[in-house]
Amino acid sequence: MATSKQELGAWGEMLVAKTFACPRCKTFRSLRRLPPNFKCADVICDFCGYLAQVKTVNVENVTKVPNTVLGAAWGPQRMRMKAGIYFPLFLVLRNKTKKAVFYLATEFQKPSMYKKRKPLSQNARRAGWQGFIYDMASLEKGALVKIL
Q1: What pLDDT sits at residue 1?
Q2: Which residues on neighbouring strands pair with residue 131, listed in sequence order?
Q3: Structural domain boundaries of the chain?
Q4: Residue 140: helix, strand or coil by DSSP?
Q5: Measured CA angle at 72 (ends 132, 19), to 5 deg
Q6: Tens digits of per-residue pLDDT, 20-45?
Q7: Please, which pLDDT band fits residue 131 given cuts at 50, 70 and 90?
């Protein structure tokens, strides 16, 4: 059974897949959700192979991007960054009555925007696992584009 955070993430991924054309090939209805736990990407274009990350956050004000957004596993992200591989980001903001979607292209992503988190404690279910945080406040003005 999915947690409320997993349900929120799945909702955001479905919204992106149903609403937007692929940013690379411009084909509508070609974005598909990847299986859960696929590393560093959530949607793929079944026409051109474009990959993107989707992060969904509950907020009070959908017009204000949070300063930080929880990422996923630090290890795979760090390895991709060392290889110079970045995936575009769809940031979905939602409250009880409204939603907004912002897009961050790879050209505006820098290693400094990825902040590793402290590993989980030895008492945690996934002891030692380490995530990261997107530092949205560090982005250049205009890097995030509102698309919905």
Answers
A1: 84
A2: 73
A3: 4-146
A4: coil
A5: 125
A6: 999 999 999 999 999 988 999 999 99
A7: very high
The pLDDT assigned to 117 comes to 96
| 64, 81, 97 from 28: Cα distances, Å | 28, 29, 26
Q: Beta 131-135 vs 68-73: how paired, if at all?
A: antiparallel
Do the Cβ atoms of 135 and 114 come closer than 8 Å? Answer: yes
- The token duo for 23 is 């940013």
pLDDT one-digit tens code per residue, 49-92: 999 999 999 999 999 999 999 999 999 999 999 999 999 999 99
Task: Compute the distance between CA of residue 89 and CA of residue 110 in angstroms, rounded to an integer.
Answer: 13
Alpha-carbon separation of residue 86 from 29, 121, 126, 142 (angstroms): 23, 29, 26, 18
In the block, residue with structure tokens 């890097």: 143
Taking alpha carbons only, the member of 143, 111, 126, 138 closest to residue 73 is 126
**Are 87 and 40 spatial neighbours (Cβ–Cβ below 8 Å)?**
yes
Which CATH number does 4-146 carry?
A: 3.40.210.30
In 5-49 the beta strands, taken as DSSP E runs, fall at 31-33, 43-45
Strand order in the sheet with 144-146: 31-33, 43-45, 51-58, 89-94, 99-104, 144-146
